[in-house]
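Duplicate of #3305? Posting structure anyway:
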């Protein structure tokens, strides 16, 4: 009886995972010069996610406005907007419906070395990114193009869908009376075999499509390599200042959901050479 119950539980879990794996959809970016898209697990509503993104974006802008740091650096605000608009103009070549997105571009005066683009085209660039890395416009285009690509490829929606599957599997395991130790082990296995590899895929994918965006917008594609080299140097310096050894930094890179900057710029350089992007 116990054997049959365990077998039933295993079959139920396998059935659920198998059904979830069939609920895949391919994003609309089908016109890339780099080939076919991969299938993505997209269980979360695009409309609901865009609605939540707009709400979160408005909150970020409201907080920055209250602190007096929203779009206050006129020089960098103008640069970010000009670069972003060129990239936005060619985004529909990768994903046709991006032409109807309600794009927004804002700059926040803050030392944070970061930039992002929420679902639906909500862009923020922190001035700390531009100043710390001393970015020229081509390098800025590489970073903004990368962030736009996350939105075009619906990486946030994909990530949330994976979390939904993980949470559902954990709930089913709990309902079936399977111990927390087994549940935690299942979650670890999920993260190692499913979540982490896809996160690395997403970063590499955003690098690749960001390169295509900046190339089609008329920016120097080699800037995606130089900006990654700058990021690599910045990461190493930040690790050294934090007292992280080279071996620890290497191990963290292996365990991270992001590929290292060094690997990323080598991959980008290989793409530029293979597709002859220097001879436009």
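Output from current build:
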């Amino acid at each position: 009886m116990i054997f049959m119950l365990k077998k039933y539980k295993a079959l139920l879990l396998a059935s659920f995972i198998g059904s979830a794996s069939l609920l895949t959809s391919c994003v609309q970016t089908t016109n890339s010069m780099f080939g076919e898209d991969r299938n993505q697990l997209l269980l979360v509503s695009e409309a609901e996610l865009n609605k939540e993104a707009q709400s979160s974006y408005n909150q970020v802008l409201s907080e920055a406005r209250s602190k007096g740091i929203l779009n206050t650096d006129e020089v960098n605000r103008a640069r970010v907007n000009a670069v972003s608009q060129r990239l936005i103009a060619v985004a529909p070549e990768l994903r046709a419906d991006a032409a109807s997105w309600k794009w927004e571009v804002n700059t926040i005066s803050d030392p944070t070395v970061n930039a992002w683009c929420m679902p639906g085209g909500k862009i923020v660039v922190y001035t700390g990114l531009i100043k710390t890395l001393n970015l020229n416009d081509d390098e800025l285009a590489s970073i903004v193009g990368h962030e736009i690509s996350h939105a075009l490829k619906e990486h946030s929606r994909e990530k949330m869908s994976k979390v939904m599957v993980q949470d559902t599997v954990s709930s089913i395991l709990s309902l079936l009376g399977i111990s927390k130790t087994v549940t935690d082990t299942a979650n670890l296995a999920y993260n190692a075999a499913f979540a982490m590899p896809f996160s690395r895929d997403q970063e590499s994918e955003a690098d690749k499509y960001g390169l295509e965006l900046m190339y089609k917008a008329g920016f120097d594609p080699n800037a995606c390599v130089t900006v990654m080299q700058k990021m690599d140097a910045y990461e190493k310096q930040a690790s050294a200042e934090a007292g992280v050894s080279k071996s620890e930094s290497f191990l963290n890179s292996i365990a991270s959901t992001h590929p290292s900057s060094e690997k990323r710029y080598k991959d980008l350089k290989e793409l530029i050479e293979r597709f002859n992007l220097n001879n436009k």
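Confirmed duplicate; merging threads. The beta strands are 24-25, 40-41, 104-108, 115-118, 122-126. Residues 40-274 form one domain.
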